[in-house]
Amino acid sequence: MPLPVPLSQPFLPHGVARLALTCSALALGFAPGLVTAPAQAQSATPGFVEDVVVIGRRASAAERLNATGGATGLIEADDLPQSANLTISRALAFAPGVVVQDFFGGNDQPRIQIRGSGLQQNPVERGVLMLRNGLPVNRADGSYIVGFANPAEAQSIEIFRGHAANRLGATVLGGALNLISPTGRSAPGLRLKASAGDFGQIGTGASAGYVHDTIDALLRVDHTERDGSRTYNGSSRSAVGANFGVRLSDRVTVRAFASYADLGFDVAGPLTRALLDSGSRSVFTGPTVTPTGAVNPGPNVVRDQPRREATQFHAGVRATGVMDAHLIDVALGYAQTDDMFRFPISAGVRDTRGDDATVVGRYAYAPDPARAIPLFEGTLQWVTGTADRDYYLNLSGLRGAQFGRNRLKADTLSMNGGFNLPLGRTLTLSPSAAWSRATRDNQDRYAPSTRPTAAYSPANPGLALPFGAVPTVGSSYERTYEGWSPALGLTWRPDHRQTVFVSANQTFEPPTHDDLFATVNGTPNSSPGRPNPAAPNQAAAVFATPALKPQRATTVEMGWRGRAGAWTWDAVAYHAWVRNELLSLRDETGVSLGAVNAPHTRHLGLELGLSLRMTPDLTGRLAYTWQDFRFHDDPLRGDNHLAGTPPHWVQAGLDWRPGPGWLLQGGVRWVPEKTPIDNLNTLYSDPYAVFDLRAEREIRDGLVVFAEGLNLFDETYAASTLVVDQARADQAVFLPGDGRAFGAGVSLKF
Asked: What is the CA radius of gyration of the chain?
């Protein structure tokens, strides 16, 4: 019987969404003798092979993905919504366990967190291993720019939650996302797309794929730009990419890819609750001075004009070979990243230019052709990189004097090995262990004896005060972290439709340079090292370099997935005991003050996906994530909730096909309970529900037009917030979600 439509994105343009109701997609089995059907090119899984390689007995996709214990997801290109504004938050909306909160509505820096890892960062630059075609987008220290994760250029997205990502070389609590590029084989011919919508949204894209005998090639380009729903809210992203594959023999393939992305966006910043509730689409102008003191703390966006501009060139080559029961996969990668971030005056302008190189080796051994998963699988990943980082004063949006110059070096080595031991016909025992070693070195190369400071009058924020200077204090450090991450899982498959698993595991996450190195002692009206704007020569530190410990967690999880009749489900529950959790602290403008270790925290959660085919033409979908993340006996915070964690995260949708070529979809994004903004739990973001509607019509084969309405009832709400340790009721911490918007577009395939 046909499989009911499982969960995928808020809008499903075509057919069945193959969201991972699965365990680890690492277990893609093979054996000698037969040829596969089309497979996922450039997957991150050790057992993966290209579709052109002779790999033996072919297990079905569901069989392979459901054969081992863990929590993952797979989203195909046809499952991504045909949208005028396809952001990463929309692409991942129906992935249970993945919480994506928009910041400014475009291709900027949404907060992505899986199981709470990195949720307190702003911008989020840690906690998830971001991959493109199995190679890290993250820099060598684990940081990443989320705007480079472009779902419009992906053929599919693999999702690994929790310890399942250890097998990819991840050193994070949360998990990993792998964006797989289309190839000439998966997307042959010419494909065009154009769209437009409210808030100045414009998008274009094109790809050309070629395949002939043993070779294939693909070239793609895309561009999006947007004025945004607020003042000073523009964004743009341009990208070009190509890949080339060749079958050297019936058992060996080689594939190379390269991409370049140019990202730019205005940082519109937060608002106070009063401005949010008023529906204001302005940007904040900083604290207000009254006779009794300053009120409404926050950044002066109008004066400081915070903005990010970043480019990245990313290239890799990957060879895969099969020798009887052995599969070997080797990949080399290189990334060059140039990142200019103009923060508010309290942090200044941060300019980072760096290079990173990656070596990845994967191996799988499958002596039994009757089993869908390898008996043994292993991964080695090594990333090394160097970056030059310069700091400048922000003088009313202009680059001022330099006050910092550093060279940041990082190496991260991770190795994982694991068995899938059959215990009879229905049980599999999966022991594994990962070992990681990370170095973080910072060389302070700033030569002058003083560091300059700048300030504006708090009573008249446009009036510059005299420049100042503070003695130079070195910011160099050398840190080394290493640790083991063992895991033990048991999987029971009573039949091919049901999978039950339980596991106990540990994870290890070292800090990034952004955790270890931060500007301090700035204010909304003064630069780092100047805590009092009126005191230009008062000595104060400019940088903080906390001696952080790595974050470690022990987690137990269990899951049950399957299908019966019209129902498809995926449920995972977990409980993690975290030691030395990395938490980011922020000043009144939302700028990082560096990180601290929380000695003991607890993460408890439920990840649930449901799909019900009510009639042949009507399907309902639900993705629900429950999170209870708390401190444990903290001297200051007690057992409070960790800030930034929505307790409930709900995505629901209906798909209706009223006739040939038609698709109508409705969806709701619902946060039914308030979300703490600070770790002391004194300030909260209100619940909200946002309704979307879209329609799609396939006029003829290959020609599709679509229209959509987002936030149909024009709900005023905070899509996200800053995350702070202790907030004030009048503080600017709320990031408004987009108002009602309409868009339309067309896609064409030749």
From this structure: 25
